[in-house]
């Protein structure tokens, strides 16, 4: 039985939320293709792996072991998947399109010649593979046909809801000893540096973002103040980072960060499609713009028409007043 | 250091990306073109490396004859040599075809003038976003590769590369010759100077053909994602809207 192998991402043994998305996606695709799902773990035996498989109704798991698999390395992990192909002949190897998910399957694809399709949102088979995938970071969709019995693919990150489905029986976990070429250790992680703990732009409940309309780096002072009052983070558009007003770490969009706050306050941002794809997962959007026809305004649930340098200070003083902080 | 940068010509759309009636391409009749943002930063990074350590920057693209525009732009901000592998099929090539064409060109170029110590790619192309061409080229050439890089330090033949993760960064050390996929934010690309612009007009473009056949992946059509139409509620004009804004924040429980 060829089977559908789902590669479970982890960092030093701890599973990411993306691995739960991967298991959910694999179970659904397994049902559609009528293929058994096998969860694949790269690295040392991990007691939580079996429990994770069972939580998602996956009854079979395989651990790819090698003493050289001390930490993440794109070439080591990619070759491990390539070896899996030779050992088990899977029909599909899938994962989630995180940095690692896409990198490992691209490596495996390069090493085996099996086609790799990144960031799919729909997958089916009928005289070849039919895939719908993201282009332009999700601004467009592409239907693609792949003529190959076997395929490597990732589902777009956050496109799959994490739905546990407990297994009726215990999962059976197998271990396979690989013999990876020592040269592949050359791209293994050498060190980690922690810079921020706690809330980041991608996890903040409130993001106050500024665009070209802010006018200067000093102009961001009132956005900083509003963000701080709301325990939020400051974001920006690419026009702002290109002007050197703020660091790229603050950029929201296709080539920046994807955010999903309770409310996104977009000030002086026109709402170009590449910005919008980074912000569209926000639960609520408030656009502050002088132009009532700006794309950000017409797409937002709420808008204030006006100069952000008048609106934001007024909002700040209203908050202070209500909190009895004076202005 | 001899550095090669691979860039792609892509349209620069505004508030929406329109599709041609046959559903196969982005409608570019009213659009300008640009280089994918990650790759603009790759060109800048290569330029800074060569300014610091000496060497030269070669910029390569696989694209239509018009992609000359992107090579000339690279010439205006720092590149030395320019290679255009011509794709005159009118369609973006699949990842296998593109990566094979790039590998063939690199092998040829290296036979003529020696190995590239560093080959830079973008983390992903802006349009297709296949997340694989750089990695496929690296594996075909037998070189180490890491994607998602937002910082490079060079000391002799050792490249120390930083990859951004949510809480900070991961550090990788590679020996040249190596391949890195970089992300926007690694630097702030410079704007062309007048002198750069003039020089770019004279830059020689090395044009090549490729007879690489198509791979197994074929684009069937492009379409728009489902759009939810929102009724925008205007809370007011100017400073007078402040009270309504704060009411909204209170309603959402973020005040
Ligand atoms: C491949 C690619 C990837 C990209 N990735 C990203 C990305 O990740 N993130 C991103 O943001 N962009 C990205 N872009 C760039 C994007 O296309 C736009 O150029 C950019 O988002 C525009 O930034 P902006 O809205 O700040 O500026 P503008 O488009 O210039 O808009 C400024 C807005 O401010 C308003 N305004 C002016 N003055 C005031 C005032 N005093 N008060 C209130 N409003 C005012 C104006 O009405 C206007 O709507 C990408 C582009 C490409 C081609
Ligand atoms: N047609 C092309 N010509 C040159 N380089 C390309 C081309 N397409 C992609 N690349 C490079 O490969 C990287 C990854 O592309 P992709 O696999 O499409 O996401 C891009 O950021 C570019 O650096």
Search tags:
heterodimer; A: 327 residues; Rossmann fold; 9-stranded mixed beta sheet; 9 helices; 17 strands; elongated; B: 255 residues; 13 strands; binds flavin-adenine dinucleotide
Short description:
The complex is a heterodimer of chains A (327) and B (255). Chain A is 29% helix and 27% strand.
Structure characterization notes:
The complex is a heterodimer of chains A (327) and B (255). Chain A is of the alpha/beta class and 327 residues long. Chain A has 2 domains: 4-187, 3-Layer(aba) Sandwich (Rossmann fold), CATH 3.40.50.620; 206-322, 3-Layer(aba) Sandwich (Rossmann fold), CATH 3.40.50.1220. In chain A, 29% of the residues lie in helices and 27% in strands. Chain A is built from 9 helices and 17 strands. In chain A, strand 8 (129-135) and strand 9 (140-146) form a beta hairpin. In chain A, helix 3 packs across helix 4 (99-112) and helix 5 packs parallel to helix 9 (308-322). Chain A starts with a strand and ends in a 5-residue tail after the last helix. The mean pLDDT of chain A is 96. With 255 residues, chain B is an alpha/beta fold. Chain B has one domain (2-230): HUPs (Rossmann fold), CATH 3.40.50. Chain B is built from 6 helices and 13 strands. Chain B has helices spanning 37-53, 68-77, 95-113, 133-141, 194-202, 242-251; strands spanning 2-6, 9-12, 32-35, 56-63, 81-86, 118-122, 145-155, 158-165, 168-175, 178-182, 205-208, 217-223, 233-237. A 9-stranded mixed beta sheet of chain B has the order 9-8-7-10-6-1-4-5-11, sandwiched between helices. In chain B, strands 2-3 form a two-stranded antiparallel sheet. In chain B, helix 2 (68-77) packs across helix 5 and helix 3 (95-113) crosses helix 4 (133-141). The longest helix of chain B has 19 residues, at 95-113. In chain B, 47% of the residues are buried. The chains are: A alpha/beta (327), B alpha/beta (255). At the A-B interface, helix 4, strand 7, strand 8, strand 9 and strand 12 of A face helix 4, strand 7, strand 8, strand 9 and strand 12 of B. Strand 12 (191-194) of chain A pairs antiparallel with strand 9 of chain B. The structure holds flavin-adenine dinucleotide and adenosine monophosphate. Flavin-adenine dinucleotide sits between chains A (211-213, 237-240, 251-256, 268-270, 272, 274-275, 278, 288-291, 294, 307-309) and B (12, 34, 36-37, 126).
């Amino acid at each position: 039985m060829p089977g559908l192998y789902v590669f479970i991402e982890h960092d030093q043994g701890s599973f990411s939320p993306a691995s739960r998305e991967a298991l959910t996606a694999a179970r659904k695709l397994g049902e559609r293709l009528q293929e058994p799902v096998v969860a694949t773990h790269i690295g040392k035996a991990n007691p939580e792996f079996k429990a994770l498989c069972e939580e998602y109704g996956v009854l079979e798991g395989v651990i790819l072991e090698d003493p050289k698999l001390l930490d993440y390395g794109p070439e080591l992990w990619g070759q491990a998947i390539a070896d899996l192909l030779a050992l088990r002949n899977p029909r599909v190897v899938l994962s989630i399109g995180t940095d690692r998910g896409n990198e490992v399957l691209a490596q495996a694809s390069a090493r085996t010649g099996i086609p790799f399709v990144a960031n799919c949102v729909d997958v089916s088979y009928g005289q070849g593979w039919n895939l719908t995938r993201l282009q332009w970071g999700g601004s467009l969709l592409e239907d693609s046909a792949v003529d190959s019995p076997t395929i490597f693919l990732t589902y777009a990150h956050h496109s799959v809801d994490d739905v546990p489905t407990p297994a009726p029986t215990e999962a059976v976990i197998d271990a396979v000893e690989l013999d990876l070429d020592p040269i592949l250790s050359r791209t293994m992680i050498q060190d980690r540096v922690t810079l921020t703990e706690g809330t980041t732009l991608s996890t903040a409940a409130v993001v106050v973002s500024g665009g070209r309309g802010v006018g200067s780096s000093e102009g961001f002072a009132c956005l900083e103040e509003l963000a701080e009052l709301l325990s939020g983070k400051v974001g920006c558009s690419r026009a702002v980072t290109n002007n050197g007003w703020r660091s790229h770490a603050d950029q929201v969009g296709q080539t920046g960060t994807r955010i999903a706050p309770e409310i996104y306050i977009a000030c002086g941002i026109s709402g170009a499609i590449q910005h919008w794809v980074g912000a569209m997962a926000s639960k609520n959007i408030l656009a502050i713009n002088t132009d009532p026809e700006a794309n950000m305004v017409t797409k937002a649930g709420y808008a204030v028409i006006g100069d952000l340098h008048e609106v934001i200070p007024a909002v700040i003083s209203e908050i202070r007043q209500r909190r009895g902080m004076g202005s | 250091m001899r550095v090669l940068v691979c860039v792609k010509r892509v349209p620069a759309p505004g508030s929406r990306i329109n599709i041609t009636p046959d559903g196969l391409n982005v409608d570019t009749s009213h659009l300008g073109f640009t280089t994918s943002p990650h790759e603009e930063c790759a060109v800048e990074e290569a330029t800074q490396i060569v300014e610091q350590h000496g060497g030269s920057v070669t910029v390569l693209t696989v694209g239509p004859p018009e992609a000359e525009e992107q090579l000339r732009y690279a010439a205006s901000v720092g590149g030395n040599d320019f290679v255009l592998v011509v794709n005159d099929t009118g369609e973006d090539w699949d990842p296998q075809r593109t990566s094979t064409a790039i590998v063939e060109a690199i092998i040829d170029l290296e036979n003529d003038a020696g190995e590239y110590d560093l080959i830079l790619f973008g983390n992903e192309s802006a349009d297709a976003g296949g997340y694989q061409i750089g990695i496929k080229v690296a594996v075909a050439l037998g070189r180490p590769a890491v994607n998602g890089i937002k910082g490079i330090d060079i000391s002799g033949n050792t490249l120390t590369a930083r990859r951004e993760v949510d809480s900070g960064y991961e550090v990788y050390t590679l020996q040249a010759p190596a391949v890195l996929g970089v992300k926007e934010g690694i630097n702030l690309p410079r704007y062309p100077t007048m002198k750069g612009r003039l020089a770019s007009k004279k830059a020689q473009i090395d044009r090549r053909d490729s007879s690489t056949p198509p791979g197994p992946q074929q684009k069937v059509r492009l379409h728009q994602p489902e759009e939810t139409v929102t009724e925008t509620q205007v809370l007011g004009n100017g400073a007078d809207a402040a009270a309504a804004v704060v009411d909204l924040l209170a309603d959402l429980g973020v005040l």
